[in-house]
Amino acid sequence: MNLSSLPLTVASAFVVTLATVIVPNPSTIAASRLVVTRGARAAAAFLSAVVVLDVAVFFVMALGLQPLLYSIGGTSYLVPIAGAGMVIVGAVMMVTAPRAAAKLRARQQGSAAGRGNGGLHGPFLAGLLVPAANPGFWVWWTTVGTSFIHAARQWGKVGLALLLASFLAGVSAWYIPLVLALRRGKDVFSPRILRWVLFGFGAALIAIGAHLLWKVLQGAP
Q1: Burial zone of 158 (CB within 10 Å; 0-12 exposed, 13-18 middle, 19+ buried)
Q2: Confidence category of residue 112, pLDDT binned at 50, 70, 90
Q3: Given 20, 35, 73, 87, which residue has the most CB atoms within 10 angstroms?
Q4: Which residues lie below 8 Å from residue 137, measured CB to CB, with a gap of 6+?
Q5: What DSSP string describes 92-145?
Q6: Contact present, 171 and 52 (Cβ < 8 Å)
Q7: What pTM was estimated for this model as a whole?
Q8: What is the pLDDT of residues 60-111, one digit of tens each?
Q9: Structural domain count, the chain
Q10: CB 12 within 8 A of CB 97
Q11: Is 70 exceeded by the pLDDT of residue 207?
């Protein structure tokens, strides 16, 4: 992946990460449920574990898988796969934005009306297991995430550190407002605004993915 400069790479990583977590997913639903059934501390423990898992996977990819792929020439396949993946996901986000917004709101309201924690006896343990059981989590890290790591590596440890900070900022930019809003019995966005947010992030993913694919085409023989 070549996004020309470190600031652009870091900014793109933030946008892609935020776009990924803002879409209804198992971690968002579980965190929402914990806020309304067991309180903000339980949700914070859950999301802390999610972050711990993300950081662990980042280092595995940065120190293990990505160098291995580079040594065997496998990184050349990451950019087109990541670019195509972003375009597809962005298009799906734009098309399904109204339904996704309604789905997230309905599940959050359903969580508020529910009782118990649905078998989540340990919020922190659940924060490790829920994303780990989601195939999309691993697909993202082995394609898009690894592509960003490959791009940031050219700036050395500083690039990787800033990239990790960007990933964590993207996650925090959604989960912290989500927990605070649900704690007060409110939504982060109204369904109408959330539709436009999802639509906008979908367009951003398409733009980033198209940029990567264009770079691949320019470098093709």
Answers
A1: exposed
A2: very low
A3: 35
A4: 131
A5: HHHHHHHHHHHHHHHHHHHHHH--S-TT---HHHHHHHHHHT-HHHHHHIIIII
A6: no
A7: 0.77
A8: 888 876 666 555 555 566 667 777 777 887 787 788 777 766 666 665 555 4
A9: 1
A10: no
A11: yes
- Which stretch of DSSP H or E encloses residue 88? helix 78-113
What does the longest C-alpha to C-alpha distance in the chain come to?
60
Phi-psi map region of 119: left, alpha, beta (phi>0 left; psi -120 to 50 alpha): left
Question: Is residue 39, in this structure, part of any structural domain at all?
Answer: yes
Residue pair 14/169 in contact (Cβ under 8 Å)? The answer is: yes
Asked if the structure places residue 135 within a domain, the reply is: yes
Tell me if 18 sits within 8 A of 174, measured CB to CB. Answer: yes
- With H, G, I as helix, E, B as strand and everything else as coil, classify residue 37: helix
Tell me the mean pLDDT in the region 2-20.
85
Whether the CB-CB separation of 195 and 98 falls below 8 Å is answered with yes
Phi first, then psi: give them for residue 61, nearest 5 degrees: -70, -45
Query: Taking phi first (over 0 means left), then psi (-120 to 50 degrees means alpha), and beta for anything else, what does residue 116 get?
Result: left
Torsion of CA 173, 51, 45, 26, to 10 degrees: 80
Place of tokens 């339904």: 99
Q: Does 182 map to a domain?
A: yes
Specify if 1 maps to a domain. no
Domain containing 99: what range?
A: 6-219
